[in-house]
């Protein structure tokens, strides 16, 4: 069945540009999985230095094309060329790649344990099949299936990768993949070590996951798609690393709210608006203890948001999902303090702020707790610190949670941190959660629905490689 | 709804004895989960030395009652009093408990990473709810939900435990639990730190898993029950550690088979018969390269098995499942070389051996690949080393696989090890797999259906504790 080729769309203008990309057919996907076996043993047994050399060469080739890559990514995503794409995200990408190379050289990802008395040696090994890497719309380089964190972690654990190019940045991905192929071929790796396709029918994607040549899934994207893929992988008994959703709430204790409502409002609004509000760690909701402080905080946040231009969103679906979330709040009787409308040209939306009382926030729980990419923030005014703790206890799993407190808030701060440690992968004291450092001490994870499994992190090697490895004991094996 | 209390059955005689035990009601299970919250923060924040002291005191109390515990376990399971229960399994139990205490003292289970420059610290923390521990029939002490490996691993990661007593050893479990409660109370732990119930309706068990006071499941038992519980936990997004099934095949390369068929047969038959064939690592199938060597191996194994008395099986369901497996092979036209019948008194079964050609083994794959506890072994004669590798490639996930080879078999040995590293949690060179050392370098795991997730091990601290912990990053948290 022939389908119309897809073309990139410039989100700032709404205009299509560049070449057409064909969706992969089921036969093409199955051929990729068939050939993955060619690379499994090669990658499992190759010298670490060879594989590390591939990643380092890949990183060097990317750096040689830094401007070209960042420019096409900018055209496809409307994320700022500089510093966001050409510096911050670009550097993150090559840093991750070199960290993965270091893992391959020092074998730190293997977590070897030895017991000479019992003639035992345990080590992590690859999974024995390819990892399908499905990246998100919002990081065209650093979380791209063919160059991002999951690619690096899967390859650090010596697995072949089959990457899916996101429709929001197909040209960027093709350009990255060309560099990957050049480095792969220069290193003498099998072609199946890194493969890439451009979108597919969801049923064909599930058939790919079920193929014996595929051992695991790495997915970053929406909760709905992630939960569907999780069910498929769970039934197959294949590991799935799923980064899905969160509203990453901020909890402001009463003394801090009273003393610093305006400063907190500005820091929060800046974090909400960062990258067009399209960070998975966007603090979409802020719970503020005390009605008058909450009103001050909301008023100042509205001022900040009104002063900001409409955000250009990554794709039409991102804009439409945001518009639907805003419309649902409006339909429930809520009026935004600012914004609330799409804008043109392209996929734009006004910075939008709602302010709700605690009772309303409970009634509208599904809307308050549901992630919406884009420049949308919700202030929830709660009646005191005890109610702040109640909201913390009622949270779904989150990637990150922040506590803002002053010295007089010490008791509630401790209680909140005690509750939230089980709710989020990352706890922040004062700081807003946008910005996830590439560090071995980072945890980018959290309980479902933030991710599929709170035991893992998607950022920070060597721990992130553990997601794509298998435990093995060699018992008297010489 | 009142149900008839359950009484223990002596498997050697088939006679019921001792007091009646009531199945837990849904209300009782929910009350346990409700109160688990009382222990979550206490255990998360308690000094490690306090929690370690509890485990050490528990171990000491068990040692003070070694004979009494081993005797009642013997009466309920018919496993040998000595050395099996009173020494080997008893020592394993207290050794695991002390290893968990050491983890709590040295905090090695936390896997802390620090990044001072970014003000980050990552650490594993408890899951924030109880771990439901469901142990198997075959290790009344060392894998018991209230004293075994999963209990120790869950508690080492500071989680409360809700243990289910197996109907096959309710009196043993009650006796262990009494010591646990005495140690718990002496240490000043909340009552909810360790709770225990005696079996329940499966639907009530699923309701328990869904309760917010329950964070994870540890299960050791049948594949059918494990897969049902896996589906429940997967849908809830709660970690499930599932040790289910395996036939743990042995692969005998042609030169070794030719040179040593009889010696290999004796080692294999002894491993099959160990503990009545009721080890999860029983090597139920042996693939032998070369028809004449396979025939010699089968003949000698049959001699060994004929010389052995009928095994007393743990429970009537274990005996019935074994009888059904044997009947299915017979119905498919296979005649056992020896055994094949239940015996009396109690739950006995004759050591039973089948020998199949490769083509028949393929036709009867479901029977050959399906685990059956008890003294049943299957020899599969394959036509040469290439076919041996084919069978290895076609394997389901296993807890353990063994390769037996001579110097002339070096090439096929390497190929087999290369294939099997992705199929099993533990690879053995020459040695039979029964016997799982308690060691940090052990992996008791493997791909589904051996377990639910090949990334973990159920034996070997601190790694085993990772199954029941959550990753947390403290970001600028003082």
Query: Biggest sheet of chain A: strands side by side, in what order?
Result: 15-16-11-10-17-18
Q: CATH topology of the largest domain in chain A, what is it called?
A: Aldehyde Dehydrogenase, Chain A, domain 1
CATH superfamily of the largest domain in chain A: Aldehyde Dehydrogenase, Chain A, domain 1
Shape of chain A: globular
- The first-level CATH class of the largest domain in chain A is given as Alpha Beta
Give an overview of the whole structure.
The structure is a homodimer of 478-residue chains. In chain A, the strands form five sheets. The first copy, chain A, has a six-stranded parallel sheet, sandwiched between helices. The first copy, chain A, is an alpha/beta fold and 478 residues long. The radius of gyration of chain A is 23 Å and the shape is globular. The first copy, chain A, has two domains: 264 residues, 3-Layer(aba) Sandwich (Aldehyde Dehydrogenase, Chain A, domain 1); 180 residues, Aldehyde Dehydrogenase, Chain A, domain 2, CATH 3.40.309.10. The longest helix of chain A has 26 residues. In chain A, helix 2 packs across helix 6, helix 9 packs parallel to helix 10 and helix 14 runs parallel beside helix 15. In chain A, a hairpin with a 4-residue loop joins strand 13 and strand 14. The relative contact order of chain A is 0.13. Chain A starts with 5 loop residues before the first strand and ends with a strand. The model of chain A has no long low-confidence stretch (mean pLDDT 97). Chain A contains 15 helices and 19 strands. At the A-B interface, helix 1, strand 3, strand 4, helix 8 and strand 18 of A face helix 1, strand 3, strand 4, helix 8 and strand 18 of B. Strand 18 of chain A pairs parallel with strand 19 of chain B.
């Amino acid at each position: 069945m022939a389908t119309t080729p897809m073309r990139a769309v410039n989100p700032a203008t709404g205009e299509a540009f560049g070449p057409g990309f064909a969706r992969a057919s089921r036969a093409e996907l199955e051929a990729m999985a068939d050939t993955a076996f060619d690379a499994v043993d090669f990658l499992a047994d190759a010298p670490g230095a060879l594989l590390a050399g591939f990643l380092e060469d890949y990183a060097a080739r990317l750096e040689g094309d830094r401007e070209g890559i960042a420019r096409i990514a900018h055209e496809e995503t409307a994320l700022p060329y500089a510093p966001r794409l050409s510096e911050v995200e670009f550097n993150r990408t090559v840093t991750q790649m070199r960290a993965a190379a270091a893992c391959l050289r020092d074998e730190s990802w293997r977590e070897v344990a030895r017991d000479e008395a019992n003639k035992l040696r345990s080590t992590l090994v690859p999974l024995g099949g390819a990892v399908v890497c499905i990246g998100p719309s919002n990081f065209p380089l650093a979380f791209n299936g063919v160059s991002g964190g999951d690619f690096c972690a899967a390859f650090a654990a010596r697995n072949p990768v089959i990457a899916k190019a996101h429709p929001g940045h197909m040209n960027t991905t093709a350009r990255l993949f060309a560099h990957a192929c050049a480095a792969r071929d220069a290193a003498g790796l099998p072609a199946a070590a890194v493969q890439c396709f451009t979108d597919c029918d969801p049923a064909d994607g599930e058939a790919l996951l079920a193929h014996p040549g595929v051992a695991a899934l790495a997915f970053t994207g929406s909760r709905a798609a992630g939960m569907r893929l999780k069910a498929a992988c769970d039934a197959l008994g294949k590991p799935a690393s799923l980064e899905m959703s969160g509203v990453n709430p901020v909890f402001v204790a009463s003394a801090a709210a009273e003393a610093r409502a305006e400063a907190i409002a500005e820091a929060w609004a800046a974090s909400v608006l960062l990258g067009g509000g399209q960070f998975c760690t966007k603090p979409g909701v802020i719970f503020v203890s005390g009605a008058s402080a909450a009103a001050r905080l909301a008023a100042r946040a509205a001022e900040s948001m009104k002063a900001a231009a409409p955000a250009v969103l990554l794709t039409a679906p991102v804009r439409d999902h945001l518009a639907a979330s805003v419309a649902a709040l409006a339909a429930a009787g809520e009026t935004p303090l600012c914004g609330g409308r799409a804008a043109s040209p392209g996929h734009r939306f006004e910075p939008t702020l709602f302010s709700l009382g605690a009772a309303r926030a409970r009634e509208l729980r599904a809307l308050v707790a549901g992630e919406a990419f884009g420049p949308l923030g919700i202030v929830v005014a709660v009646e005191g610190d005890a109610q702040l703790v109640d909201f913390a206890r009622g949270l779904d799993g989150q990637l990150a949670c922040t506590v803002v407190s002053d010295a007089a808030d010490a008791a509630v701060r401790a209680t909140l941190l005690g509750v939230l440690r089980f709710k989020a992968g990352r706890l922040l004291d004062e700081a807003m959660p946008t910005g996830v450092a590439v560090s071995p001490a980072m945890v980018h994870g959290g309980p479902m629905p933030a991710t599929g499994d709170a035991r893992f992190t998607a950022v920070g090697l060597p721990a992130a490689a553990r997601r794509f490895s298998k435990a093995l004991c060699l018992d008297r094996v010489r």
